[in-house]
Write a structure and sequence with these properties.
With about 150 residues, the protein is mainly alpha-helical. It has helices at about 5-20, 35-45, 65-70, 90-95, 110-125, 130-145; strands spanning about 55-60, 75-80, 105. It binds 5-O-phosphono-beta-D-ribofuranose. 5-O-phosphono-beta-D-ribofuranose binds next to strand 1. Pathway: Purine metabolism; IMP biosynthesis via de novo pathway; 5-amino-1-(5-phospho-D-ribosyl)imidazole-4-carboxylate from 5-amino-1-(5-phospho-D-ribosyl)imidazole (N5-CAIR route): step 2/2.
């Protein structure tokens, strides 16, 4: 994520990965304030064995796109809700990538963070039958938890 202030949103991604027992790491890497840290992280990511990168940022949210430019790993972008523009700035700056460098962009805020983790899980599950079972069980539990009546 681009800042510690993004953690309140991005913790939803981490918690979802934990529920699915997916090993992961969490880092603060700012495209603007720590560009060298971003370069080092993205350039080394594939070689360290990472499989997917989830990048959450807000405002002029260049982190996901810049990370995607420096790794062949799939990058999932989460627009963090900003105070000034309610995350529309984050969304548009993450989703409007030029052809050639994709960022899989999720919804603004908590929904995007949860879904980034679930999408990462779905990608990893294509080559991990045990994770596929856990993901299917998670989805079934979610289905069972939806009441038919509002009260
Ligand atoms: C972005 O600027 C971060 O991703 C964060 O969403 C936003 C504001 O950062 P702080 O000023 O709260 O550190 O780079």
């Amino acid at each position: 994520m681009g800042s510690r202030s993004d953690w309140e949103t991005m913790r939803n991604a981490a918690e979802t990965l934990e529920k699915l027992d997916i090993p992961h790491e969490v880092r603060v890497v700012s495209a603007h304030r720590t560009p060298q840290r971003l370069y080092d992280y993205a350039a080394a990511a594939a070689g360290r064995g990472l499989r997917v990168v989830i990048a959450g940022a807000g405002g002029a949210a260049h982190l996901p796109g810049m990370a995607a430019a420096m790794t062949r790993l799939p990058v999932l972008g989460v627009p963090v809700e900003s105070h000034a523009l309610k995350g529309m700035d984050s969304l548009l700056s993450i989703v409007q990538m030029p052809a050639g460098i994709p960022v899989g962009t999720l919804a603004i805020g908590r929904a995007g963070a949860v879904n980034a983790a679930l999408l990462a899980a779905a990608m990893l599950a294509t080559t991990d039958p045990s994770l596929a079972e856990r993901l299917e069980a998670w989805r079934e539990a979610q289905t069972q938890a939806v009441a038919e009546l509002p009260e």
